[in-house]
Q: What sequence folds into this?
């Protein structure tokens, strides 16, 4: 099942779709956070209103426009990205990595596909993209072993971990440079875990103005999804609605020999196999 937050006739609705073309409003849930807290068995009420997702009157929002907590992020979780990051700024990115790097990304509002990414030109001169597989927790996880992690996952989405590289490197930590308003596009939906066999191994790609920049597969994660959940839940409760961004592969702008950072009007398309496309345009006016 694919779960959406849609705006129709000025009102936001939680909706479910079997085919990614027609979605049915789930009126029992006011928001996606409510659905995640209460749970959903994948059934569609017989009297539910159907909406065509490509209709001009339907706007696809982020599946979780207002996350209940900061997004938990994995830093440098693909080996090839570690190399390009260190090359860009060794002082900011080089670390011995016997254990995964975690940080959080503040997000008051997550915009969906088709929305704008603000440049924040007054403080950011090096706007970058990072396509990441997002894991959405659906069942409380505390002291969960990796072998049991799948039982606590609701589904998967796409996250663009937009980053201001100058702020990230200047402050020698990543929270501020990744947490500016509009820096967490997400979507277009959450695909329930039962659509995949076990922990998914999915192609992950980024295009900027149609040019392929990132291309990898989630099987290349240094710390895999079950291990991430085991490590985190050893000391913190992962509540339903918790979002984990699992890291990005190589191909970001800062990894180029001559970095080409995002500019006004650039289109960034994040693709993950089996989930879809998250497309956003950079805007200097936002």
A:
């Amino acid at each position: 099942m694919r779960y959406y937050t849609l705006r129709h006739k000025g009102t936001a609705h939680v909706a479910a779709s079997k085919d990614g073309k027609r979605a049915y409003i789930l009126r029992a849930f006011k928001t996606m956070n409510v659905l995640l807290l209460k749970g959903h068995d994948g059934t569609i009420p017989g009297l539910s209103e159907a909406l065509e997702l490509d209709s001009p009157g339907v706007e696809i929002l982020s599946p979780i426009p207002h996350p209940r907590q900061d997004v938990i992020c994995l830093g440098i979780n693909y080996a090839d990205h570690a190399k390009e990051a260190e090359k860009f700024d060794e002082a900011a990115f080089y670390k011995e990595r016997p254990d995964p790097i975690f940080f959080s990304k503040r997000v008051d509002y997550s915009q969906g596909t088709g929305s704008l990414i603000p440049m924040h030109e007054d403080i950011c001169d090096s706007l970058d993209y990072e396509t990441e597989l997002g894991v959405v927790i659906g069942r409380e996880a505390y002291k969960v072993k990796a072998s049991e992690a799948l039982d606590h996952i609701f589904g998967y989405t796409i996250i663009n971990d937009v980053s201001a590289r100058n702020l990230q490197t200047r402050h020698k930590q990543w929270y501020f440079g990744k947490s500016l308003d509009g820096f967490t596009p997400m979507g277009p939906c959450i695909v329930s875990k039962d659509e995949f066999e076990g922990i998914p191994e999915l192609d992950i790609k980024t295009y900027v103005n149609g040019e392929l920049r990132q291309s990898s597969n989630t099987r290349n994660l240094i710390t895999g999804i079950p291990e991430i959940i085991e490590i985190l839940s050893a000391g913190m409760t992962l509540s339903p609605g918790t979002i984990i961004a699992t890291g990005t592969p190589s191909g970001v702008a800062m990894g180029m020999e001559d970095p080409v950072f995002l500019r006004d009007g650039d289109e960034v398309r994040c693709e993950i196999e089996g989930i879809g496309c998250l497309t956003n345009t950079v805007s200097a006016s936002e």
Q: What stands out?
A: The mean pLDDT is 94.
